[in-house]
Amino acid sequence: MKEKVEEALKEIRPMLQADGGDVELVSIEEGIVKIRLKGACMGCPFSTMTLQQGVKRILKEKVPEIKDVIAV
Is 60 strand, coil or helix? Predict the structure, then answer.
């Protein structure tokens, strides 16, 4: 599963990097993917929306066995 998640994150990264941010995979535990938003995404008022509407949605589409995606 980790390889699938990393591949999906490679597709998401350019969108985040275009706005000065990035995303890092922290861990995967029992279907829960833990990520860290970096750069401009840290503390951004839209980071929750980015996580829910962008990162989480795309990851769950690409890797259906994911139960949830949370920022740590």
Answer: helix
Q: Give the pLDDT confidence of 12-67 residue by residue, as tens digits.
A: 899 889 889 899 999 999 999 999 988 888 777 777 877 787 889 999 999 999 99
How many residues are recorded in the chain? 72
**Domain that includes residue 61, residue range:** 2-71
Domain count, the chain: 1
Strands 68-71 and 32-39: parallel
CATH number of domain containing 20? 3.30.300.130
